[in-house]
UniProtKB/TrEMBL annotation:
Lineage: Eukaryota, Metazoa, Spiralia, Gnathifera, Rotifera
Alphabetical list of InterPro entries matching this protein: PA_dom_sf (IPR046450), PA_domain (IPR003137), Peptidase_M28 (IPR007484), Peptidase_M28B (IPR039373), TFR-like_dimer_dom (IPR007365), TFR-like_dimer_dom_sf (IPR036757)
Peptidase M28 domain location: 364-564
Protein name: Aminopeptidase NAALADL1
Subcellular location: Apical cell membrane
Keyword tags: Aminopeptidase, Calcium, Disulfide bond, Glycoprotein, Hydrolase, Membrane, Metal-binding, Metalloprotease, Protease, Transmembrane, Transmembrane helix, Zinc
Length: 746
């Protein structure tokens, strides 16, 4: 970063502080009125205060907020949440929605409940899905258990009879059998391309494959396998990724956070966000549903997970060439091979009994109405469905969400009123593939599209306490840094910002290290990024070792995600939960109360520059990027002019002027949205700068349509997609121009 930029950012920050205070004053000294009227009276009160007075009031409010966030309350919330199982579409799920609604009503929120009828997937409650190895006479010589195991340390008062067995949601039922078995590492596209150099790719046709969880979204693994005519997929968590220290019982659960030998990650295999029967439209009773047969979004081949103890039984019966070292896992006395025919004429069989069912789900939304701009929404969300007890995914988010409701209501009772409306969202059916929140986004696409300022997501909010990482729109980069300087890190005497610098060996460029620009399809922000077009943020407190594994903690989606796990190993004093609550809460407090939105368009320029460099580096040399480069250069000039105009000419006491500028800031991210989507197949991915990668939904891909075309080696389409992205950057430029006329372009 050059020094000019530092000065510039510093001045933006100081202006933002002044603007902050103005916004807060409006909140603090409002005369109580009906919550539905727009309160212009208090604007004159604001103008009577000195800057010094405003600063004191803001600092007091901020301190009051930070002090109110209570670790014991969060612990209590998590304990209560984890007494039950939470599978979407079940009685547990409906009861949880009712209990959240009741709790939030008691706190005084204006609560609405939003039902949808969506396609979900369940294993057979009586007959587990089984993988077996069979001899020449088709007698089973080994059979998987179909369950995880319980331990003496598990809390027997929990309803373990209600837990859902390991299964891969939406994979079809049926029995498949093959004498050919291949090991394909993590089943990434690269892994498949590599194995084509080792074996004849036609050999994969009719085979069953085994691969390990990790690196990419599990649905993409199964999707990759379908393309090769593979008939069944077996997934397992290799100890090298999930039991890193040792597979001995004293190194794994219940004695540590690492995967025991029968532990299994559940999860969805849907390569779509939302209900697969009502793509683009809400799953309401009036809506047409596409037939389930040949539905293009549902996985087509049988797939099932097993414990690594069971995977070992399979891997030792394989034949073929030994794999390269980066394909080798950590199972004792296993020679990892690429595969081929099984030893001794054995065959392998997968039997799955999954069913698809349309079930009703309910979201809970609780609102504190804004008193100056009630039609501008800041949303905080977490999902309450879970594969089982869900202590981390997403008990951590739900427990924090409840605490924030309590704290914000306490502020309201002490006469604080937010400028904008603050909405708390409790989503369900997230685990099935963002099915729930996407339906809500689809139903209210138009009003959310024009009214949502930012969506703040908490999913797997705490898996450790060493380091906070964030995913966000580049517009929120400087804002996130500012908030991180005001919140104490857990278990150490430093702020989150100071912790980043320490971990980054004193280097202050922490955003580049710990922030991911753009958001993927990994959680409920998906609909807000791709359909709503708001500028969003999500964060997680984790242990540094979790970074290696695509963010997945070892016991992710197992039945061992219990209160005991969190209390004993993850966050004993709930200080990491408290830090997340403070960061999300302070962000929400600011975004609902500040008069001028704290978005910095110049950061988007930096993000565009780094994406352009990355894209150029993977593109064929013949590709011409001049038009895109010029648009990005022009974006910088216009973004700087915009920031300059705010500093010099904006009259912050004029509510109309303020609204005009805020609308421009809100429209900036929306200007990048292509209503047609990135392709006919991916019409739901509308953000032209960042969208989930088609090869890994866990990753946000920059310039997704250009990158896809580069991967396809389609020169004409690459050039076409560059022109389309150039157009959307020009759209963003036009948003930042003075809005009093339409600027002509050359
Ligand atoms: Ca839908
Ligand atoms: Zn989750």
């Amino acid at each position: 970063m050059n020094s000019n930029k530092l000065v510039y950012i510093g001045s933006i920050v100081s202006i933002a502080i002044v603007l902050f205070i103005g916004g807060l004053l409006i909140g603090r000294f409002a005369i109580p009125r009906s919550s539905n009227t727009i309160d212009t009276y208090n604007l004159s009160i604001v103008n009577q205060r000195t800057e010094e007075e405003r600063k004191i009031i803001w600092n007091n409010l901020k301190q009051q907020f930070l002090n109110l966030v209570n670790a014991q309350e969060i612990e209590k919330n998590l304990y209560n949440f984890t007494r039950h199982t939470h599978l979407a579409g079940t009685d547990d799920d409906r009861n949880e929605a009712e209990s959240i609604a009741t709790k939030w009503r008691e706190y005084g929120l204006d609560v609405t409940i939003h039902p949808y009828d969506v396609l979900l997937s369940y294993p057979n409650p009586i007959q587990p899905n089984i993988i077996s190895i069979r001899d020449q006479n088709n007698n089973s010589i080994f059979q998987s258990n179909g369950n995880e195991l319980m331990f003496n340390e598990d809390d027997k008062s929990l309803p373990f009879n209600n837990i859902v067995r390991p299964f891969l949601a939406y994979t079809p039922n049926g029995t498949v059998q093959s004498r050919k078995l291949f090991y394909i590492n993590y089943c990434t596209t690269d892994d498949f391309q590599f194995i084509e150099t080792i074996i004849d790719k036609n050999d994969l046709n009719g085979s069953i494959i085994i691969c390990r969880f990790g690196k990419i979204f599990r649905g993409n693994k199964i999707g990759n396998a379908e393309k090769y005519g593979i008939i069944g997929v077996i997934l397992y968590s290799d100890p090298i990724d999930f039991a890193r220290n040792s597979t001995r019982s004293n190194s794994t659960y219940p004695n540590s956070i690492y995967m025991p030998d029968m532990g299994q990650q559940r999860g969805s295999a849907l390569i779509l966000s939302g209900d697969p029967l009502t793509k683009h439209y809400p799953a309401k009773d009036y809506m047409y549903r596409v037939p389930i047969d040949n539905n293009p979004w549902l996985p087509k081949i049988v797939a099932q997970q097993i414990g690594y103890k069971e995977a070992r039984e399979i891997l030792i019966r394989m034949t073929g060439i030994s794999v390269l070292s980066n394909w080798t896992g950590g199972l004792d006395q296993v020679n990892y091979v690429y595969g081929g025919l099984l030893l001794d004429d054995l065959s392998i069989q997968i039997s799955s009994y999954n069913t698809l069912q349309i079930r009703r789900i309910h979201h809970v939304i609780g609102t504190i109405t804004g008193h100056i701009e009630p039609d501008r929404y800041v949303l905080i969300g977490a999902h309450f469905d879970a594969w089982n007890f869900g202590a981390i995914d997403d008990g951590s988010g739900i427990a924090v969400n409840h605490e924030l409701v309590r704290v914000f209501r306490t502020l309201v009772r002490s006469n604080w009123k937010p400028r904008r409306s603050l909405m708390f969202c409790a989503w369900t059916a997230e685990e099935y593939g963002i099915v729930g929140s996407m339906e809500f986004v689809e139903e209210y696409a138009k009003i959310l599209g024009s009214r949502v300022v930012s969506y703040l997501n908490m999913d797997v909010a705490v898996t450790g306490s060493e380091l906070m990482i964030m995913e966000m729109s580049p517009l929120l980069y400087d804002f996130a840094i500012k908030i991180s300087k005001q919140v104490k890190a857990p278990y150490v005497n430093e702020t989150i910002y100071e912790q980043w610098i320490r971990i980054n060996n004193g280097n202050h460029n922490v955003g580049e290290k710990f922030f991911t620009m753009g958001l993927s399809a990994i959680s409920d922000f998906a609909g807000f990024n791709q359909i709503v077009g708001s500028s969003n943020i999500a964060m997680t407190y984790l242990n540094k070792s979790d970074l290696k594994n695509a963010g997945a903690y070892p016991l992710y989606h197992t039945q061992y995600e219990t209160f005991r796990l969190v209390k004993k190993f993850v966050d004993p004093e709930f200080q990491a939960h408290q830090a997340i609550a403070r960061v999300i809460g302070l962000s929400a407090l600011t975004l609902t109360d500040i008069d001028l939105l704290p978005y910095n368009p110049a950061r988007y320029h930096q993000a565009l520059v780094s994406l352009l460099n990355l894209t150029k580096s993977i593109a064929p040399k013949s590709i011409n990027f001049t038009s895109l480069q010029n648009a990005i250069d022009q974006f910088k000039i216009v973004a700087d002019q915009f920031n300059q105009r705010i500093q010099t000419t904006l009259d912050k006491s004029n509510p109309i002027q303020l609204r005009i500028v805020n609308d421009q800031l809100m429209q900036l991210e929306r200007a990048f949205q292509n209503p047609l989507g990135s392709s006919i197949e991916q019409a739901d991915l509308k953000h032209t700068i960042y969208a989930p990668s088609r090869t890994n939904r866990y990753n946000a891909r920059g310039f997704p349509s250009i990158t896809d075309a580069i991967e396809d080696h389609n020169i004409t389409n690459i050039q076409q997609q560059i022109s389309i992205v150039t157009y959307f950057i020009h759209s963003a430029i036009s948003v930042l121009h003075q809005p009093n006329k339409i600027q002509a372009t050359s």
